Structure prediction request, 381 residues.
Amino acid sequence: MSEFKVNEERLKQEFIRLAEISSPSFRERVLAEYLIERLQQLGLSVEEDQAGRKIGGDCGNLIAHLPGKEDCPQIFFCAHMDTVEPADGVKVVFENGVFRSAGETILGGDDKAGIAAILEVLQMLRETGVSHGPLEVIFTVAEEQGLLGSKNLDFSKVRAKFGYVLDCSGDPGTMIIGAPAQTRINVRVQGRAAHAGIDPERGINAIQVAGKALAQLRLGRIDQETTANIGLIKGGKATNIVPDSVFLQGEVRSLVKEKMETLTKEISETFARVAAAEGARCDFWAEFLYPEFHLDIKSPVLELAAKAARRAGLPVRYETSGGGSDANIFNAAGLPAANLSIGMRQVHTAEEYLLLKDLVDVARWLWEIIRVVIKQEWDKP
Ligand SMILES: [Zn+2]
Prediction:
């Protein structure tokens, strides 16, 4: 255990400050300006890439470098700047060691807990002056929009060979060793409009056709590795018109890409078959959002984090996730990245909360990761 201590009060204040800067996807600019200044104060050089322009947001990804001992492997820490909504006017309530929103908005611990922990360890490095390896901090945009920020990350600016994404709920010490690929599915069922009272016989009810197809789909949890959902349906104009069009959107995820592809095909064929039988037309298109990843427990990236967790006194656990994160994109780009649990709970809801104790544990964990790297003990567990 290292003798250096996380400054709890400073970390708490930093988290509150970050959470109260509204930063929904595509509107991360105000938060980014704050972070650029903070990172520069902490001795990092900061670059912004062109992702914002490409995805229609007001801000790109930030890639920041802190020089360190050259013979030490360079690692990165990554967290995303955007949050889901409602995110305007977040007011943090801190009581009995727990952060919550005032109730009208999300808290945004997803992913500002990660950002706050990273800033705290940078601050600790600066004030203790301990030697460390070169570090890279990557703050992404639009993670909540199908990983759009990291998908458009300018990897030419990234020097680290592996690293950590701080973006998983649950107890610090837990590491995500696998996460699913995801495909978004879109369906438009085209029927025929008619007056619902005068000549319904002329109509083909697109909503009903879609409903018949929906009733035949396998949705929810398909198996341990695979899930599917239809999450959005839009269509129809009025009660006295037989609806001629309905649009549905959903997703398929699997830790095994072939299973995702097979199920996507099955859903497409079901809509096509039912539509044809009902005299309707159907357009189906699938968008591949991101690939799956799997990490070996024996891989250096996980062994290092496990060793650091043990030094920090945190129980080491390995899990697979049902959700994607920027780690999917880094791994696909050839940069091994584990997603670490950072204590956030009930994310994406107004009931979201975060324990200060967990936040402190995350900072201690990161600190130990940096310390293990410099001691170059990471390859001999
Ligand atoms: Zn997140």
User: Anything to note?
Assistant: The first helix runs from residue 8 to 19. The pocket of zinc ion is lined by residues 80, 110-111, 143, 167 (CB under 6 Å). The chain has two domains: 8-179+292-374, 181-290. The chain has a mean pLDDT of 95.
